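re: ur question from earlier - yeah i can do the single chain one, its not a big deal. heres the input i used so u can compare w yours
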Amino acid sequence: MIAYFYHLDRKSDIQMLIVRLSVFFLLAGVMASCAKDESIHRTSLILKTGINYTSTMEEVPLGGAITIGILASGAGVPLTYLHIERIIGTDTLVQIDKGIYMGSEGLDQDFTFVKDTALIETWRVLVMNADRDTASQILKVRRGSGSAWGDI
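and the output i got, formated as tokens:
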């Protein structure tokens, strides 16, 4: 680089170098200012509560209904994935695993499942938006006494 400056003996060579350096720094500034919007929209998930929905640590008899109500939002981007699984001990049983497309209106849906024979079931609900941001909630359900079908 130093050798290059020794050969700059004419005024036009120095002006050309100044123009080239100016263009280089101008392009570098433009490239640095063209940053893509990298903000991620945070997904939110709420499990509904009330007498129509199963609450955490509620006792449900064998064969009884486990009702899970979901309120979810992609926070400005569409929801694209819904996953509900039942975890019993070390076993995970996928109940729902599907791609969805819920725009700005979000997801407001109820699901009903049947209580298994396990003493405690852990239910995990997961939603994902188009930014691939996920939100999940856990619900634990205990087995109550008796059976939803009555005495045998």
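The radius of gyration is 30 Å. not sure if urs matches, ping me
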